[in-house]
């Protein structure tokens, strides 16, 4: 019986490692990390950035998997929310940039004059959606 449990643990851990490796390879391929280093003129710290991304993924999974409580109240929740939103937003924008989504979309629908309004609308929609979800979970 315990051999089966060990085998399942090895298979589960291996599958998780492969999936996480694929996600981080995708992030690296999109150029999110190198783009940050390029725009902030801190290319000499690229290994530090990569280490932080890796540790963030590992620690985030461990906290979620083992339900480790974090005692920080609203301030910690706000910090995690801000950093998570920055990460997802940068990841989405890097993907859109790679695919040339916005130039093609703007030309096809003749929306070049409305670009500022569209960007503000996307940002406001994401912000309101996040606030709504947080308020729903707080109930």
UniProtKB/TrEMBL annotation:
<keyword id="KW-1133">Transmembrane helix</keyword>
<keyword id="KW-0472">Membrane</keyword>
<dbReference type="InterPro" id="IPR020144">
    <property type="entry name" value="SpoVAB"/>
</dbReference>
<keyword id="KW-0812">Transmembrane</keyword>
<feature type="transmembrane region" description="Helical">
    <location>
        <begin position="74"/>
        <end position="99"/>
    </location>
</feature>
<feature type="transmembrane region" description="Helical">
    <location>
        <begin position="48"/>
        <end position="68"/>
    </location>
</feature>
<dbReference type="Pfam" id="PF13782">
    <property type="entry name" value="SpoVAB"/>
</dbReference>
<feature type="transmembrane region" description="Helical">
    <location>
        <begin position="6"/>
        <end position="27"/>
    </location>
</feature>
<feature type="transmembrane region" description="Helical">
    <location>
        <begin position="111"/>
        <end position="135"/>
    </location>
</feature>
<protein>
    <submittedName>
        <fullName>Stage V sporulation protein AB</fullName>
    </submittedName>
</protein>
């Amino acid at each position: 019986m315990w051999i089966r449990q060990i085998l399942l643990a090895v298979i589960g851990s291996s599958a998780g490692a492969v999936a996480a490796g694929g996600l981080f390879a995708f992030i690296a391929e999109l150029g999110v990390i190198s783009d940050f280093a390029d725009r902030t003129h801190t290319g000499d710290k690229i290994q530090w950035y990569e280490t932080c991304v890796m540790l963030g993924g590992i620690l985030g999974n461990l906290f979620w998997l083992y339900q480790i409580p974090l005692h920080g109240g609203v301030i910690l929740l706000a910090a995690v929310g801000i950093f998570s939103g920055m990460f997802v937003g940068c990841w989405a924008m890097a993907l859109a940039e790679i695919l040339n989504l916005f130039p093609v979309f703007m030309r096809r629908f003749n929306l070049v004059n409305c670009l500022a309004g569209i960007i503000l609308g996307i940002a406001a929609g994401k912000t309101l959606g996040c606030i709504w979800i947080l308020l729903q979970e707080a109930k």
